[in-house]
Amino acid sequence: MKKKWWHDKIAYQIYPKSFLDTNGDGIGDLRGVITKLDYLKELGIDIIWLSPIYQSPFVDQGYDISDYYNIGEEFGTMKDFDELLAETKKRDMYVVMDLVVNHCSDKHEWFQKALKDPYGKYAGYFHFVKGKDGRVPNNWRSYFGGSVWEPVPGTDMYYLHFFAKEQPDLNWENQELRQEIYKMINWWLEKGIAGFRIDAIINIKKDLRFPSFEPDGPDGLASCIKMVEEVGGVGDYFEDIKRNTFAKYDAFTVAEVFNMKEDELTEFIGDDGHFSTMFDFSAHTLMQGEKGWYENKTFDFKGWRDTIFASQLQLQKVGFAANIIENHDEPRGASRFLPEHARNEAGKKMLATTSLLLYGIPFIYQGQEIGMTNCRREDISEYDDISTKDQYREALVAGCTKERAMEVCFENSRDNARTPMQWSSGRNAGFTEGEPWLALNSNYREINVEEQAGRSDSLLSYYKALTALKKHPEYKETLTYGRFAPDYEENGDVFAFHRISEAGQDVFVAANYGKEPQTLMLAGGCEKVLLSNMGKETVKKEETDCSGCLTLDSCEAAVLLLR
Asked: Signal peptide position in this chain (predicted)?
């Protein structure tokens, strides 16, 4: 494997709107990020990924961009951004921006010009397609529900949108459009950012025949995912992007990719792949139901663990993964990937241990380091997320009661990750002096940074210990490039694996997700306890066996250096 500058880094995703508000308007801003850079540095963070901060009408929380070259006034100014960039560089940190180029906002200048001249140059930047017999071109369903087609006023054409109707899809077949996008990407890289997290990029290739598919729901529509899975040639676009932009700057790129074909992994993230890395969503997709959130599966520890193990074994043959517990589009990991008995501070430390030390680059989402949880709402009107409202309606149509539909939202809503960051137990959790744009999780009085910063045994302190271990000079090579080898797979309560360096250093990570104590035999014995979520410094020895053993109580995790 070619060694890259980002391989040994730890990344942190900031959802700026909910991070920290400094001007009292209830919306987080760039100055809030600047004031917390030292906090992030102490946490062990190297790379900061900012969710979209561009100008946007915020139909889909900034993923509908109306101007790629300007900062949204809610977040501040370009001067603020330049200061943020300068301050991160002082701390040897990197900034990664969100790149959203499958679609833009319907308020973008390109789309507005296309509407004014539906047969002109800018119409070619989008998919303006004639209807069939006075109806939409086909029966595709958008990711947010309903048809992917919206009428182009004054014509017999429709425009394509895989997401909200206010997010028209860009036409990547148009070479002039591609050059405009490349110019914009290079502009940001010239400014000094380190790279991009690339949103929904698998969707940019369209089957221009726009065929209909067999309906997969009572609405008579078929998910647009069907087209994404069947169409070929998207890799050609990715290589074109890389050649014209990323490769020129040694940029770090992490792709959000679903529905990738099985044989494409090397092309995507191999040594000469399209991207530096891509998020491993295998554990998240495992939970998904076929028709909607109301069919999502409940957490099954063994199935979840085995899915992660299989993914790790596959990925390490090819390249680096980007490992997540949660992000802005997922519910909180502490509420999703822990059994009921483990939804406590020890359990959250255990989850962190078995995630951050996997093979690949770890991404921590804001609030994860203090164990923020899902947030219960009483009525659907209290949710902001467009996808949650759609899934609530889907649940009701499917026959769920209002109570069940609300429970489905509590378990799965994207708003769970978007509630304001909990800095303190004071007014509005220290997030804002004004009215928060989204109501806080009521548990901020118990779960917050201020309380945990004052405790050496807190989850926040444990995250700092984990990142310090990952960067420790004696173990950094092993915990960066060491081979991943699962262990104790026959035990349905244990999550255990080795990271083994080429020189033979063996770091053993083990956690007990069950209710009863588990004893693991250690062939060769333990040389040193590197980290324990329960503060243990030694490993019990079997009097009759010099190889030794490790006994883990419920919710206990340990990291050992083996002989």
From this structure: none
